[in-house]
Amino acid sequence: MRLETVSVIGGGAWGTALAQAAAIAGRNVSLVVRNAAQADEVNNQRTNSTYLGAQPLHPAIVATTTVAPADFIILAVPAQSTRQVLQQMEPTLLAGKPVIVSAKGLEAGTLDRQSEIVTSIAPDTLPLVLSGPSFAADVAAGRPTAVTLAGDGVDLAAELAAALAGPSFRPYAADDRIGVEIAGALKNVYALACGAVEGAGLGLSARSALLARAFAEMERMVTAMGGSAHTLTGLAGLGDLTLTCTSTQSRNYQFGIALGRGQAATDIIASGAKLAEGVATTPVADALARSLGVDAPLIGAVQQVLTQQADITTVVAGLMSRPLKREN
Predict the structure, then answer these.
(1) What architecture (CATH level 2) is domain 5-175?
(2) pTM score, two decimals?
(3) Which residues, listed in sequence order, are joined to residue 171 by a DSSP beta bridge?
(4) Which parts of the chain are beta strand (E)?
(5) Which fold is adopted by the domain 178-320?
(6) Catalytic residues, which ones?
(7) What confidence score (pLDDT) does residue 324 get?
(8) pLDDT class for 311, splitting at 50, 70, 90?
(9) Which helix (H) or strand (E) element contains residue 192?
C-alpha cells in the first residue's frame, strides 16, 4: 500500500507533534489547522506557537485549512469532536483509506470508542488507533517516544508503523484495537483520581495503591469489552497509565490536582484549564461499566468527585474501607 502522503487533521499540540514525527519519517504531511493565520505561521515561520511555543517545525509540513487527498489520515482532534469533524469531510477522502485515531476518550451519549465513530460514518475505512506514553512536546522535539499502533490485523498496522517510525518516534504494531482504545480512554479517568490524591495531600503511598487498583480495574473493563489483558502489560496499558497518572505534564493529572484542592470541575473549566479528556470520558466510562456489569469503583469514585457528590478524601476513605478480599 502506498503510504507517502498523510493528512493530519487537527493543528493543536498533539496533531502538530504527529505531523512533525511523520515528516521526520519522510512522509509528505498536510496539517489541517483551524484558520489561515495559524496556517501562515506554520508555513512561513515554521512554528505553531500557540501550542508548541518556539519548537521549530519540519519543512515537509504544509499547513492548510482544508483536507486534501492523502494516502492515509491521522485524526488528532478532541474525542468529543471526532464525529463532527468526520461528518464534515468529503466521503471520497476517507473511502478505503487507513484512518488513525489518536484521541483517547469515549463518546458521550453513544458510549462509542473513537474507531467505532470512524466506522459508523465511513464503513469502508481501515481504522487504527495510536496510543501510548507520549507528550506532544517530547514528540515534537524528537525526544525518544514509543507508542502502540493497533488495527484489526497486525499487517496493516506494521506497514503504517514503518511509515511513521523515525530515529526517536517508534510505533509498535498490534492487533488489539479494542484493548488499546479502552486503555487509552480509561487512563485519563484514573489520572484525574491520582491527581486528586496529590492535590488533597494524601501521599504517594495512596497514589501508588490507587494506580495499582486502577490497573486491575482497567483489565476488567478491557476483557469485558473483548480486548486482551496482554495489551495492558505494554505501552498502551501500563506505560501510558503510569505516565499520565504521575506527571504534572498530564492535563488530566493537573485537572485532578485542582479537584483535590477543592475546586469544582465547572470552576476549573471556567478558569481556562486545558482540555482534559478524562472529564468527558468519566461519565461515559461509568455508564459503560454499569452496562457491562463490571465492578469499577474507581471510575464511579471519579464521577462522584466530578459531580461534587463527594470529595477525594471521602472517596479514598470509602475505597480503603471496602471488604478485604484476596488480591487478584
Answers:
(1) 3-Layer(aba) Sandwich (3.40)
(2) 0.94
(3) 147
(4) 5-9, 28-32, 61-64, 72-75, 98-101, 126-131, 145-150, 169-174
(5) N-(1-d-carboxylethyl)-l-norvaline Dehydrogenase; domain 2 (1.10.1040)
(6) 187
(7) 46
(8) confident
(9) helix 177-199
